[in-house]
Amino acid sequence: MTDAMVLSTDGLPPREAGAAWHAWMASLFAGLETDLYGASRFEGHVRVANAGDVVLTRLEAGRHRVIRSMQGLRAHESPYLKIVAPWEGVASVRQNSREACARSGSWVIYDTAREYEVTNPEWSEHLVVMLPRQAIADRGIRLDGLMGRNVGGSSGIARIALETMRSTYQELPGMAPQLARRAGELLIDMVHLSLQELAGQATAGTQQLALQDRIRAHVAAHLRDPGLSVESVAAALQCSKRHLHNAFAESETSLGAFIQHSRLELCMRELLLPEHAQRTITDIAMDCGFGSSAHFSRAFKAYTGLAPSDFRAMRVCAAG
User: Fold this and answer.
1) What is the mean pLDDT of residues 7-18?
2) Which of the two ends of the chain, N or C, has the fewest CB atoms closer than 10 A to its terminal CB?
3) Residue 142 to residues 38, 145, 147, 160, 171: CA-CA distances in angstroms?
């Protein structure tokens, strides 16, 4: 039988739960940073098991996000390919100027050797699978264009891979170590085949993803420009607004919402920077592309559940 590590905020005083979660994420995932959006109460449960060199984690938690920063990269010595496959809730992964969302029935893959961010905007129950990066890279597949992608899961080898990941996790408690290792090797095979299939596709779907990449890259580069809009993106990329909207047709958010959410996330990061402690909230909002402090405040509260001042104050208290 394989051993499993179990961590839970159950029984912890409310003031200690958030700090414990921060510490667990940093310990389990080599310095990964956690943001609880200023929440004063938090609930989370983690169960970690190994199938040979493959690490499988069942994560149940409230609204939060995790960030792999440049500092985290320096602390991260063993690069993995990481997969998030929700049972419940949604996971949004940002990497390489891409954003990919996964719900139950699909999975997203990303590279822990590069900066990334995973947002869990609601209560989530995810299966997180970590495979040694070299085990896939040694098979001759180019990973750069495949990271930060929704691989799928509703059909083809991606669906078989998803079912294999879930069943392996569920059966691990009863497996002998040698069988668990073989199961891990099978998972590596399934993920490799899924990426190989994704890399070889030349369909309207991949063309749509390519356009999404161009759109996201343009938005990231011009986020502080108050003139950034669907219209300005269409003009810059020399295509119609309808074409842009079609590129986001299967995304969780529209292009307009993506632009606003990206600005809000930028504001949230800027509000937390110690070097910006003396700047006003309005100044930060304007610098992040918002044209109106009233509009910013309404949008920020709708997105985070907190007024900007409360968000900033709660983080200052947490740091103290």
Assistant:
1) 91
2) C
3) 39, 7, 10, 22, 32
CA-based nearest residue to 109, from 124, 123, 125, 98: 98
Output the six-digit token pair for 156: 């083809």
Q: Which residue has the tokens 């002998």?
A: 176
- Cα–Cα dist 130/200, whole Å: 23
Q: Express as a percent the part of the chain with pLDDT over 90.
A: 53
Beta bridge partners of 47: 6, 58
Structural domain including 236 reads 204-319
User: Same domain, yes or no, for 174 and 58?
Assistant: yes
| DSSP state at residue 294 | H
Q: Which amino acid is at 248?
A: F
Question: Per-residue pLDDT tens for 96-108?
Answer: 878 888 999 999 9
Question: How many other C-beta atoms are found inside a 10 Å radius of the C-beta of residue 192?
Answer: 21
Q: What pLDDT, in 10s, does the model give residues 42-51?
A: 999 999 999 9
d(CA 120, CA 64): 5
Question: Computed over its alpha carbons, how large is the radius of gyration of the chain?
Answer: 20
In what side-by-side order are the strands of the sheet with 149-152?
Answer: 4-8, 44-51, 54-61, 124-132, 80-88, 107-111, 149-152
SS3 98: strand
What DSSP assignment string belongs to 162-207? Answer: HHHHHHHHHHGGG--HHHHHHHHHHHHHHHHHHHHHHHH--SHHHH
- C-alpha distance from residue 245 to each of 172, 221, 224, 253 (Å): 43, 19, 22, 10
Q: Work out the angle at residue 104's Cα, subtended by the Cα atoms of residues 101 and 108, and round it to the nearest 5 degrees.
A: 40
CATH number of the domain to which 252 belongs: 1.10.10.60
Does 18 lie in the same domain as 165? yes
